[in-house]
Specification:
Blueprint: H1 5-14, E1 19-21, H2 33-52, E2 65-70, H3 79-90, E3 95-101, H4 115-124, E4 127-131, H5 149-170, H6 172-175, E5 180-183, H7 190-202, H8 205-208, E6 222-225, H9 231-242, H10 259-263, E7 266-267, H11 285-295, H12 302-316
Parallel strand pairs: 1-2, 2-3, 3-4, 4-5, 5-6, 6-7
Helix pairs in contact: 2-3, 3-4
């Protein structure tokens, strides 16, 4: 049985009213298929109870805790078993999405065999939180002991960038246009490399023929967490998101970047319970630094900042119901 007092204590200390929580990697990736399927179902029910029994926000009917359900993304799992778990999550009222590792299952998240899973997710109206998973070979970081700095700072964003790009190239967003995908770590390098990606696609007719639109259009289909730790990074990402409509095939729109538009698809996150402070008297820097970054973005109005801090999540996860 999960206990929510510690989470609520963290939220109270940092002025957070509502959290959408998830399990952390490696999720169930280390288990055999049947066991992972059974445990996923049990954990989703536990998470539902954890959220359902949490208190409500003062003077509101909104619960303080909601959750991302868990999929058993293991090699032996069948597509029908995954669809079954998606349907379970969709029927649990306090689970508003599901978390997926960037590694995916089988040949990866861009495998056409997963199309029934994406269809089920879209039909259920669930948000997919795409999160990395130590997928870069440790040899890439060299022999010097740099702790977890390189995999966390560079490896995780690389995994997110690669997984999201593979989904774009596979045509998933053309086949399932109402799919809602939330990328960890502000989308990794995808915002910065989106024009380079579009150019590379244009020079490869086989790949280009798969897509209905310029690659930059699909960034407007994504949501990004705001865990970038700097206002310049957040501002740049919102610029890139805001121009996506310019790249819709047949569109005559050619708007200049508008950070207000881009901010609507960005959501505050905490990284909790990772990176705790060294002293129990200190607040978590993952909270304070990311809130400061949101507050300091040039070109965001107070309304934009309020949206990133919580208003966008209320809408995306339909937290009022």
């Amino acid at each position: 049985m999960l206990v929510f007092e510690e989470k609520l204590s963290f939220m109270d200390r940092h002025g957070i009213d509502v959290s959408v929580v998830s399990t952390a990697n490696p999720w169930l990736d280390f288990l055999p298929g049947p066991q992972a399927h059974t445990l996923a179902s049990e954990l989703n029910n536990d998470l539902e109870e954890y959220c359902a029994t949490a208190p409500t926000v003062a003077n509101h009917q909104i619960k303080r805790l909601y959750g991302f359900g868990l999929l058993p993304l293991v090699p032996e799992i069948t597509t029908s078993a995954l669809v079954e778990i998606v349907q379970q999550i969709g029927n649990l009222p306090h689970l508003r999405g599901l978390i997926m590792g960037t590694r995916g299952v089988g040949k990866g998240l861009d495998d056409e065999a997963l199309d029934p899973v994406w269809a089920a997710i879209e039909k259920a109206g669930l948000v997919v939180f795409l999160h990395p998973h130590y997928g870069v070979d440790g040899k890439a970081w060299g022999d010097k002991d740099n702790g977890h700095v390189l995999p966390l700072a560079l490896g995780f964003p690389f995994e997110t960038t690669t997984a999201a790009t593979r989904l774009i190239l596979s045509g998933v967003f053309d086949k399932f246009p109402n799919l809602r995908l939330l990328l960890a770590h502000s989308g990794g390098a995808l915002p910065a490399l989106s024009s380079r990606l579009a150019s590379c696609i244009d020079h490869d007719p086989v790949v280009a023929s798969r897509l209905k639109h310029d690659a930059r259009y699909y960034l407007g289909k994504l949501y990004l967490d705001a865990v970038a730790y700097g206002p310049e990074e957040l501002g740049f990402a919102s610029d890139v998101l805001s121009r996506a409509a310019n790249f819709e095939t047949g569109s005559s729109i050619k708007n200049a970047p508008n950070r207000t538009i881009g901010s609507k698809r960005m959501l505050f996150g905490t990284d909790h319970p990772f990176f705790p402070p060294l002293s129990s008297s200190e607040k978590w820097r993952s909270v304070t630094e990311n809130l400061e970054a949101i507050n300091d973005v040039q070109g965001w109005t107070e309304e934009d900042k309020d949206g990133v801090r919580g208003g966008n999540a209320i809408q995306l996860f339909n937290l009022g119901n």
